[in-house]
Design brief:
Helix content: over 70%
Distance between the termini: 17 Å
Order of helices and strands: HHHHHH
Largest sheet: none
């Protein structure tokens, strides 16, 4: 079971929202992780490589810095390699096909009242609900 953590969740959500606002303010870019990460791979589309690299570095460094403070971080990931490969390919395909990911559509798009983002977010959330139900009760 997942533990209910309203304070940590609220703080995490506020930090995500703040980072999205700051990226839009300073760089004029949407904080879509799939777009930022794909911009790190050749062919490079723009001159924003340093800011993209810094954003991804911040995402990966944050849990490491938290661990330095002594906080315990637990993350459960399946040990079923074929399932993980399939999941990664489906998420990658979905973010390319949907022109964005949960952060781009779910955080930035919804806050801008984008209809396309509303449809995308409803679609991936419904898919997530079905997947969790199937994994917990059927498979």
């Amino acid at each position: 079971m997942t533990e209910f953590t309203p304070i940590a969740s609220l703080l995490g959500g506020a930090m995500i929202g703040l980072s999205a606002v700051l990226l839009m303010l300073w760089e004029g870019r949407i904080a879509g992780i799939s777009g930022i990460a794909s911009g790190l791979l050749p062919p490079y589309r723009d001159d924003a490589f340093p800011s993209r690299f810094g954003f991804v570095l911040g995402l990966t460094a944050a849990p490491l810095l938290l661990m330095v403070t002594g906080a315990e971080i637990t993350q459960t990931v399946s040990s079923n390699v074929p399932v993980m490969i399939a999941a990664g390919l489906l998420v990658g395909f979905g973010s390319v096909y949907g022109n964005g990911c949960t952060s781009g559509h779910g955080v930035c798009g919804l806050s801008r009242l984008s209809r396309r983002s509303m449809v995308a977010t409803a679609t991936f959330m419904a898919s997530a609900f079905v997947t969790v139900f199937l994994v917990r009760h059927v498979i």
